[in-house]
Design brief:
Blueprint (H helix, E strand, L loop, with lengths): L4 H12 L4 E3 L6 E5 L3 H11 L8 E3 L3 H4 L3 E2 L2 H10 L4 E7 L7 H4 L4 E5 L4 H9 L4 E2 L14 H8 L5 E2 L12 E4 L5 E4 L5 H8 L28 E2 L9 E5 L10 E3 L6 H16 L5 E4 L7 H13 L2
Parallel strand pairs: 1-8, 3-6, 5-9, 11-14, 12-13, 12-14
Antiparallel strand pairs: 1-2, 2-7, 3-7, 4-5, 5-6, 9-10
Helix pairs in contact: 1-6, 9-10
The protein binds threonylcarbamoyladenylate (TXA) and magnesium ion.
The site of magnesium ion has 3 residues, from loops.
C-alpha cells in the first residue's frame, strides 16, 4: 500500500476538528477520534450505536505519549518491547491528571491502549498532538471491517472521511491483556497466548466464562452476519453456506475457504471477509467445519461462537 501523505493530512484535518475518521490498522479498521475530546469521542458511540458503558481502546504512536495517560509496569514493558507496535492491547492504570475523555473509560480508572503497526496509521498518529480512541469500525454487534469499502458499507455518508490503507493484514482484532493486578487474557486476537506466556513466563489461559473478566463488549452477541451459524459440521444443509479450512473434493457456490491448507493464521485473516461475503448472498444459515481449538483456531472459534448468537 502506497503512503499518500495528502490523505493522511486530510484525516488530521477532520480529527483536529473533533470529527470521526475511519483508519486502517493491521488488525481491523478503526473508527477513530481525538481521545482527549468529549465531543469527538461521543460521536464514536453515536455512529457505532455502541452502549456508553463499553470502554474504548486508545491508540498511541509511542511510549512518550502513553506516559501522559497511564502507569507503566514491568509486565507491560516486557510485552511492549516484544510485540509493539503490533496486534496487542494492554489494560493499564489510568494516570491521575490524564486528559483522556470520560467517554473512553466509562469513568473507570483503567485504560486499554495499543500501538498499531500499520505504517499509515503510525504516520497519522505521529502527526497528531493527541492519541486516537478507536473501536472497530463496524456498527455495534456487527461484523468488523477489514477494508475501507467495508467501513463505507457500515457507515455510508454519516462518516466524514475514511483513510484507505488496503486490506488489514491480520484480519482479527488485537489480543487484550489485562495488566492491572495479575496478568489476564481478556480477548483472544492477533498475538497468540502462548507467545505472551513465553515472555511473561506464565501459563495464562483465556477463560470465556470467567465472570471476573471486565470486558463488556465480550459478553454480548458480536461479529454477527445476521443469520444462524452452526459449528463442527460435516455436511451442510440446503441453502447453507459452508465454511472450510482445508481443501475438499466437493465444490459448489456455497463453499467458502478460510484456508485450503488448514493454516489457522490465514484462516483468521479471512474470517471477517468471508462472513461479509456470505452475508451479502441469500443463504439462510452458515455451517462451519470443525476448527482445531488451538492458537488462532481458538480465536476463530471464539468469534464464531459469539457471531452464532444472532
Ligand atoms: O484490534 C483492535 O483492537 C481494534 C483496532 C481498531 O485497534 N479495536 C477494537 O476495539 O477491537 P473494540 O472497541 O471493537 O474492542 C475493544 C474491546 C471491547 O470489548 C472493550 O470492552 C474492551 O476492549 N475494553 C476497552 N477498554 C477496556 C478496559 N479499560 N478494560 C477492559 N476492557 C476494555
Ligand atoms: Mg469491535
Amino acid at each position: 500500500m502506497k503512503m499518500n501523505l495528502s490523505n493522511i493530512k486530510k484525516s488530521k484535518f477532520y480529527l483536529d476538528k473533533n470529527e470521526c475518521v475511519g483508519i486502517p490498522t493491521e488488525t481491523v479498521y478503526g473508527l477513530a477520534a481525538n481521545a482527549y475530546s468529549q465531543s469527538a469521542t461521543s460521536k464514536i458511540f453515536r455512529l457505532k450505536k455502541r452502549p456508553k458503558k463499553n470502554p474504548l481502546i486508545v491508540h498511541y504512536y509511542n511510549l512518550k505519549m502513553l506516559k501522559n495517560d497511564c502507569m507503566l509496569n514491568e509486565d507491560f514493558l516486557k510485552l511492549y518491547k516484544k510485540f509493539s507496535p503490533g496486534p496487542i492491547t494492554f489494560v493499564l492504570k489510568l494516570k491521575k491528571g490524564s486528559k483522556i475523555s470520560k467517554n473512553v473509560t466509562n469513568k473507570k480508572k483503567t485504560l486499554a491502549v495499543r500501538f498499531p503497526k500499520h505504517p499509515i496509521s503510525r504516520k497519522l498518529l505521529k502527526l497528531l498532538k493527541y492519541p486516537l480512541a478507536a473501536p472497530s469500525a463496524n456498527i455495534s454487534t456487527k461484523i468488523s471491517a477489514v477494508t475501507s469499502q467495508d467501513v463505507k458499507d457500515e457507515f455510508g455518508k454519516k462518516l466524514k472521511y475514511i483513510l484507505d490503507g488496503g486490506a488489514s493484514k491480520v484480519g482479527l482484532e488485537s489480543t487484550i491483556v489485562g495488566l492491572i493486578n495479575k496478568p489476564q487474557i481478556l480477548r483472544l486476537g492477533g498475538i497468540e497466548v502462548k507467545r505472551i506466556n513465553k515472555i511473561l513466563k506464565t501459563n495464562l489461559k483465556y477463560k470465556r466464562k470467567d465472570k471476573t473478566l471486565i470486558v463488556p463488549g465480550q459478553l454480548k452477541i458480536h461479529y454477527s452476519p445476521g443469520i444462524p451459524i452452526r459449528m463442527n459440521v460435516n455436511s451442510p444443509r440446503l441453502n447453507e453456506a459452508f465454511i472450510l479450512i482445508k481443501k475438499k473434493k466437493t465444490s459448489g457456490k456455497n463453499i467458502y475457504y478460510l484456508s485450503k491448507t488448514k493454516n489457522l493464521k490465514e484462516a483468521a485473516k479471512n474470517l471477517y471477509k468471508t462472513l461479509r461475503m456470505i452475508k451479502n448472498k441469500k443463504f439462510k444459515s452458515i455451517a462451519v467445519e470443525k476448527i482445531p481449538n488451538v492458537g488462532f483456531g481458538e480465536a476463530i472459534n471464539d468469534r464464531l461462537l459469539r457471531a452464532a448468537k444472532f
